[in-house]
Write a structure and sequence with these properties.
This is MurR/RpiR family transcriptional regulator. The chain has about 280 residues and is an alpha/beta fold. It is built from 14 helices and five strands. It is about 60% helix and about 10% strand.
């Protein structure tokens, strides 16, 4: 894994000092070879030991190892990787807003892919498929989080899975009373710290259902409660860009789950085709 991709994917779990170091490395990757660990520490106004601990936490032997790895990544970019070259060599200043946004979305999607192991995706997909055979898939999200919950609920319904979707906490709390062992609840919450959603999750687990959290790649109460966690890595200093990156990376993650469900069962795929045809006929003037 590229050291820069690794830093991006781990940033949301870093301390404030570690995030400062991470941002400096990401923004000045092409200049890192000219900095010693002490010079980097001086530039950020932190201790040299903080820099060393940062590199070791990422899995490097020390700062020289990190600097060498970043230099190799830049060299590979110079040899033909246009996306990395744009990121690490030309810099954001040379990009148009459209190109920069496209690149940042690609980086967020790649980082999100790396922090969601295939076995986790397989576990969630299997649980949804199992719930569809006599059980139910519950989904809830509040505010902007409901946009993704609602869209994913629609896709699951197209596959013939029994879906219970709600954006109203009171209604979902009532619906949870009908949950059975083997059902699954997907809770969409970007920051994962809404107390009411955690209560819904705990009630669902009392019914012996499986809770899946969909949050940022950060320590949060909802993620700690969940049986499985789907994580999104998306960061930018500009709030309006960061929101777009999160939505893009989350959508890509959900699309991967949907494709796995489509390709994992011929009957579900046939149901999807039949439902799409039925909807097309209904919508005909």
């Amino acid at each position: 894994m590229s050291p820069l991709v690794k830093i991006r994917s781990e940033r949301d779990q870093m301390s404030a000092v570690e995030r400062r170091i991470a941002d400096f490395v990401l923004d000045n990757a092409q200049l890192l070879r000219d900095y010693s660990s002490q010079q980097l520490a001086n530039a950020l106004g932190i201790s040299q030991s903080s820099v060393v601990k940062f590199t070791q936490k990422l899995g490097f032997k020390g700062y020289p190892d990190l600097k060498y790895s970043v230099g190799e990544a830049i060299a590979r970019a110079d040899n033909g990787d246009e996306v990395e070259a744009a990121t690490q060599v030309r810099g954001e200043a040379a990009e148009s807003p459209a190109t920069g946004l496209w690149r940042r979305k690609s980086e967020a999607e790649e980082a999100t892919r790396l922090i969601n192991p295939p076995q986790t995706l397989a576990t969630v997909t299997k649980a949804m498929a199992k719930a569809g055979r006599g059980g139910k898939v519950f989904l809830i999200g509040l505010g902007e989080d409901d946009i993704h919950a609602r869209d994913f609920a629609y896709k699951l319904a197209l596959l013939g899975l029994p879906v219970v979707h709600n954006f109203d906490l009171a209604r979902m709390a009532a619906n949870v009373s009908s949950a059975d062992p083997g059902d699954i609840l997907l809770v969409f919450s970007e920051h994962g710290n809404h107390p009411a959603l955690c209560k819904v999750g705990r009630h669902f687990r009392e019914r012996r259902g499986m809770v899946v959290s969909v949050t940022r790649h950060s320590a949060n109460p909802l993620r700690a409660l969940a049986d499985a966690a789907l994580l999104v890595s998306a960061h930018d200093e500009r709030p309006y860009i960061q929101s777009l990156l999160y939505q893009s990376a989350l959508q890509h993650l959900l699309d991967v789950l949907f494709v796995q469900l489509c390709e994992g069962d011929d009957a579900r795929h046939a149901q999807l085709v039949a439902n799409l045809e039925r909807i097309e006929k209904v919508m005909e003037p």
